[in-house]
Amino acid sequence: MSGWEIFQIWLMAFLTLAIFSFLYRDNPLFKFVEHMYAGLSTGYYLGLYYDTVIKQRLWMPLSEQGEWWLIVPGLLGFLMFARLSTRYSWLARLGLAFVMGTTSGVYLLSELHGNVLGQMVGTMSPQRVQGMVNWWLTAIVVVGLITTLIYFYFSKEHRGVLGGTARVGIWFIMVSFGAHFGYTVMGRVSLLIGRVYFLWNDWIGTMR
Amino acid sequence: MNLWQQLDKLDRRWVFLLVWIAAVIPLIVPATFKISISPEGKSLFEAVDRLPDSSTVILTFDIWPNALAETEPMERAALHHLFRKNMYVITVANIPLGGPSVAERVTRELAAQYGKTYGVDYVNLGYKPGYVSVLRGMGTSIEGIFPTDNSGTPLSELPLMQRVKNYEQVDFIFVVADNATVDYWVSIVNAQFRKPVGAGVTAVMAPKQFAYVGSGQLVGLLGGMKGAAEYEKLVGKSGLATTGMGMQSLVHFLLIALIVVGNVGYIVTRQVARTRERKVKA
């Protein structure tokens, strides 16, 4: 391992420990590293966006391939900076309106195709486990779906049959929250494991 | 003050310290845990395994650096599988920070192990902002979205990309993501271009993605470090995820114990308080 690699590992270990120091209490070291991360990320983003968007998608096609129509989106993008001026900030709305319109169009289609229709078909079809229809699972999905939807039906007071069904819905929602919580804990522990593994293997490894 | 009251007032930093110790112990005393394979993990592996050798696969690096412990083992296991089957691999990142550099590092390292040539067997497209328009645009022309690869070489100079123009020439999309891009691979590429998509996601995201597996929109799913360990086992290449499962299990045991102790303490102290209240009233 070269001296440069060892230096990098020590720097990474220092930054990791500085971030973990917040667990003891908020301190200047943590704040310094936090600000450094924000600054570095912003700098990296600026360079990346300049290179991949301004240069590759606007300037090069415009200047080298004569795609003059790109002046229009370029100008709309440039107008976004009008927000920095109190007098001309309204000009930013032109570019923003275009972004809003195209985004809505694209999202509408993808949400409809991918989520609404796909999930409706998936929910209404019999549930399968390893290719075989599982009627128990199908019944659970049907009961869970209906009772959960009833829980979110607020046009009538939740009393009587409606109240009882909504209560079953709450149980399904709680089980779902439990699964989400369990997975979230696993995710956070995994992040800790990643850093502990790095400190133990790579950082302490340089001292062995 | 009884034991439960003392525990109730315990500084949470002791809990942090205990979790740290639980995470470190398996590194000092390595312990192996049995890794069971979930049906979702198995079906993803089988979907990739069923692809004919020399198929073309897009492998995504839609990952931030903070979730590398979960996502990098998935990427590595996927690449072992793909390169072993002599697949043509196109890597792409829809996340600016982390994804492109990890893709470069991991693909080059594993490609060297399998004797793969850059440009012929695999290509790293790198990153372009605006993942919704990127995913849609690649359906028409990959070169239109990525004029060059990650290192600035025009795609027209890369033999693999001379053949692969859009999703038509791609057989499978293997998404590894720690964010919402996986939803768009499903809702745009699977729903609108009819390409099979399988995913490896972080544990936080997994519960939502199971709905896509249930509806058949994802062919399979790897959830968090456990999912990565499953794929490592299926591929036969143990890595960080397999090692991490020992640490994961021990920390989970500790957390379960703490939750039990916390709840017992809560019930006991509440009971004591009620009894005291009753005595005062009497």
Search tags:
heterodimer, A: 208 residues, mainly alpha, 6 helices, B: alpha/beta, 6-stranded parallel beta sheet, elongated
Q: Describe it for me?
A:
The complex is a heterodimer of chains A (208) and B (282). In chain A, 78% of the residues lie in helices and 2% in strands. Chain A is built from 6 helices and 2 strands. Chain A has a two-stranded antiparallel sheet. Chain A is extended, with a radius of gyration of 27 Å. Chain B has 12 helices and 6 strands. Chain B has a 6-stranded parallel beta sheet with strand order 3-2-1-4-5-6, with helices on both faces. In chain B, helix 4 runs parallel beside helix 5 and helix 4 (68-84) runs parallel beside helix 11 (224-235). The longest helix of chain B has 42 residues, at 240-281. The interface between A and B is large, with 50 and 55 residues.
The count of helical stretches of chain B stands at: 12
Morphology of chain A: extended
Q: Which percent range describes the beta-strand content of chain B?
A: 5-15%
Task: Output the helix-strand order of chain B.
Answer: HHHEHEHEHHHEHEHEHH
As an assembly, this protein is: heterodimer
Spans of chain A of 5+ residues with little confidence (pLDDT < 50)?
none
- H/E element string of chain A? HHHHEEHH
Strands across the major sheet of chain B, in which order?
3-2-1-4-5-6
Distance between the termini of chain B: 23 Å
Radius of gyration of chain A: 27 Å
- How many strand units of chain B? 6
Largest sheet data of chain A: 2 strands, antiparallel
By secondary-structure content and strand pairing, the structural class of chain A works out as mainly alpha
- Uncertain regions of chain B: pLDDT < 50 for 5+ in a row? none
Strand order of the largest sheet of chain A: 1-2
Helix content of chain B: 55-70%
Estimated helix fraction of chain A? over 70%
